[in-house]
Amino acid sequence: MNPKVDFYFNNSQKWQAELEQLRRISLDCQLTEELKWGSPCYTLQGRNIVLIHEFKEYCAFLFFKGALLNDSEGILIQQSKNVQAARQIRFTNIQEIVDKEAVLKAYIYEAIEVEKAGLEVKFKKTEEFILVEEFQKKLEELPALKAAFEALTPGRQRAYMLHFSAPKQSKTRESRVEKCMPQILEGKGLNDY
Fold this sequence. Notes:
Layout: H1 6-10, H2 16-28, E1 32-36, E2 39-44, E3 47-54, E4 59-63, E5 87-91, H3 94-99, H4 101-116, H5 133-141, H6 143-151, H7 154-165, H8 170-185
Antiparallel strand pairs: 1-2, 2-3, 3-4, 4-5
Helix pairs in contact: 5-6, 7-8
């Protein structure tokens, strides 16, 4: 156990028993406990294997390369359609964790083997993401915007493309594009301040 992580387990109001059970299972699998992104992260030789996190409705194991796991039990969940690699196993009570302990350990050991084998998730290329009409039109009208957007890293480009494509209404998509144009022209990503 890493004392830097203790606060996470001690501060949980709703999921303390469940989180402690997930912690024990992770440590039983001989992983190193670290604190990453404010959450307990379990690693093998510095490589992320599984993360424990909590939400209002559930707590979960997050497998960083979950998309590569066999999922023989059909329990891995893709958080959203845009999540490419990670998969969650969600819990709403401690009994679910106790009942699935052997399965959870098997998933962790499989994730360890995936990491040892050096397997990588094949991510969609930036050009495979949707470029909404409202943004495409602005890129055609404003060469400076197009140049600034193309100069962004692929990850920043994808973040904008996802952000612009999320709303159902054209008016909302157009509003998002207008709001983000100054930031793109400054060479900043969606979450850069």
